[in-house]
Amino acid sequence: MLNPVKVGILGLGTVGGGTVHVLQRNAQEIARRAGRGIVVTHACAKELNQTHPYRTDDIVLTEQLSDVINHQAVDIIVELLGGTTIALDMTLQAIANGKHVVTANKALIAKHGNEIFAAAQEKGVMVAFEAAVGGGIPIIKAIREGLAANEIGYVAGIINGTSNFILSEMREKGSEFADVLVEAQRLGYAEKDPTFDIEGVDAAHKLTIIASIAFGIPLQFNQVYMEGITHISPEDVQYAEELGYRIKHLGITKRTDKGIELRVHPTFVPNKRLIANVEGVMNAVLVESDALGQSLYYGAGAGALPTGSAIVADLVDITRTLTTDPGNRVPHLAFQANALSDIPIVPIEEIESSYYLRMSAIDKLGVLAHVTQILSNNGISIEAIIQKEPINGAEHVSIVMLTHQVVEKQINKAIQAIENLDGIAGLVTRIRLEMK
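User: That's the sequence. What structure does it adopt?
Assistant: C-alpha cells below.
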C-alpha cells in the first residue's frame, strides 16, 4: 500500500477533535476505502478539546497556523477556524502552497468560494466542503454526483438545527419564542449571540452553496432573502396545527421561468410531509429532480462526530484522486467551471407563493368584509379563514386566512392596505406556504 496521506488541521476544537477521533477509530476501514492510510501529522491548536478519546502522540502540535500551512510534508489542510478573514487568508495560502483543502466553513465558501475555487483550479488542487452543509448528511455529494443525471428543479431544507429545535419546542410545549431560546442556549444548541441561527444567516450561507451546485450558478450569498423566526408566536404555531400545517424555518431554492429563487424564511408545510416531521436539532433536505422525482436526506446537522464524518469523507475523496489529472476530477460546484450560468436571481417581491395571514381586528360588523375586499382588489383569493370569538369580552379578535398562490408584491400591497384600516390593530403577520 502507498505511504499514508499526511493531514494538517487548523483548529482542534470540537469538530477537529471529532475528525481525529474518526480517523483514528476507523483507520483500517478508511485505508481500505481510500487505497492508503490518512493520518493527522500536524495541528494548530491553542487548547485541545478533550471530549473525544483521540491520541496526539504522533501529531506535531503548534500555536502557529503558518507552521502547518507551510510544512512540506502536509498534503491536505483541514480548515476549522471559522469566520471569513484569517480562514480565507490561510485557505488561499494553502492553495498557493499546492495543498488540497477540506473545510467545514459555510460562510467562507458562501462568501468567497468563487475566488477560492478559481485559485484552486489554477493551482490544480481540490477544495472539499461537504461538512459545510448539513453536518454529516452527504447532501453535497448527493446533489453534485448522485443526481448528476438530473435537472434539479427545487430544493428545500431544514438546514439550521437551532431554529428547528426552537420551533419544535414551541409546538410541543406551547412556549414563547424567548423562553425556548433560553432553553436552547442552556442545552448548548444556541450560541450566546444566536443571531446567525435565528435570523437565517447560517441557513443562507448553506442555501447559497446548495443553489450553486443544484443549478450551476456562481455563489451569490448577497442575493439570498433572509427572514428569521423571532416574530413567530405560539398563536401562529397553534393556528398552523389547526389548519393542518407545521411551521419550519426553510431554506428554499427553485428554478422558475423568472430565474432562480433564493430564500430563507419561516414556512407553513403540510403536516403530512416528511420534512414537516423533522424535529429537534435534526436537519433534512428535500430535492426534486426530473428523473428521480423527490428525495429526502435526513440526519445530524451538527456535532463533532457527524461533522467529522463529512470531513473524513472529503479526505478520502481527495486521497482517491491525488494521482488523477485535475481536469478529470469532480468540479467544485458540480458543473464545469466554464459552464456556470448567469441565470438571474428572482427578487423576493417577484416570487409566487400562498400565504398565511394573521391580524387582530376590532370585533364589529364590516371589518372582515373590508379585509376580503382589499384582497380581492389585489387579485388574491382566500382558501381558508378562521375567525375566533372574542375572549372574555375582548374588543379584538384574531382573523386568520390562507390565500391561494399570488405574486409577493401583490400580497405586500394588500397587507399595507389592511394595516391602514381603522378596524385593524397592529401589524399583519405573514408566513409563506410550501406545498411540496
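The mean pLDDT is 94.
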